[in-house]
Design goal:
Oligomer: single chain
Strand content: under 5%
Length: 171
C-alpha cells in the first residue's frame, strides 16, 4: 500500500507542474505578440511583485492576493478535482486535512506557477513547444545537458523538492 500511495502522490504533484506549464503557455500564446522578447517582457511583468498571484494581476491590492485566474484554475484542476469524492478516514483525520491541507496545495500552485514563468522568461521553454497544432497543451519539461554525465536530462528543470522545495515552503 505504501508503494501505491507514494506513486499516487508523485502523480498528484507532477500534475501541478505540467498543468502550470499548460496554463502559462496558453496565456502567453493568447497575447498579440508571442515573440521571445515579448514573452520575456510579459514574464518579467508577471514576476514583478508576484503579480501572477493577484486578481487582475495587480499586486498593489493585498486583498486580491492568491486570487489570480492562474492560481484558481491550477488549484481547481490539480487539487480540488482529485479531492472530489474523497472518503472520510477518521484515523487519518481527513476532515482536518481538507481544512488545513489546502495551504500546502496553494503553496505548490504558487511555486509551480513561478517556475513555469521563469522557464519561459529564461527561454528554457518556448510557447510553441508547449501547444500542439490542435491548440492543446503538450506540457513538455525541457531537457538540459548534465555536465557530469554528458546526457540531456529534465532533472535540472523539474519541479522537485531539490529544485523548488525551499521556494514552495516560502509561500
Amino acid at each position: 500500500i505504501n508503494i501505491q500511495a507514494t506513486r499516487r502522490l508523485s502523480v498528484w504533484r507532477s500534475n501541478f507542474g505540467s498543468t502550470a506549464l499548460a496554463v502559462m503557455a496558453h496565456f502567453l500564446a493568447s497575447g498579440s505578440d508571442d515573440t521571445p522578447d515579448a514573452v520575456r517582457e510579459t514574464c518579467k511583468e508577471l514576476l514583478d511583485g508576484l503579480a501572477f498571484l493577484f486578481q487582475d494581476l495587480d499586486p498593489t491590492k493585498p486583498e486580491n492576493a492568491y486570487r489570480s485566474q492562474f492560481l484558481l484554475q491550477l488549484l481547481a484542476h490539480t487539487h480540488l478535482r482529485s479531492c472530489i469524492g474523497c472518503p472520510d478516514v477518521p484515523k487519518l483525520d481527513t476532515d482536518a486535512l481538507k481544512e488545513y491541507g489546502i495551504k500546502g496545495a496553494i503553496s505548490l500552485c504558487c511555486a509551480v506557477l513561478e517556475r513555469a514563468i521563469r522557464l519561459f522568461q529564461r527561454g528554457e521553454l518556448h510557447v510553441d513547444d508547449q501547444i500542439s497544432t490542435r491548440g492543446k497543451a503538450t506540457a513538455k519539461t525541457p531537457l538540459k545537458l548534465n555536465k557530469v554525465s554528458g546526457k540531456e536530462s529534465s532533472t535540472a528543470l523539474a519541479f522537485s523538492e531539490q529544485n523548488w522545495g525551499a521556494c514552495t515552503r516560502q509561500y
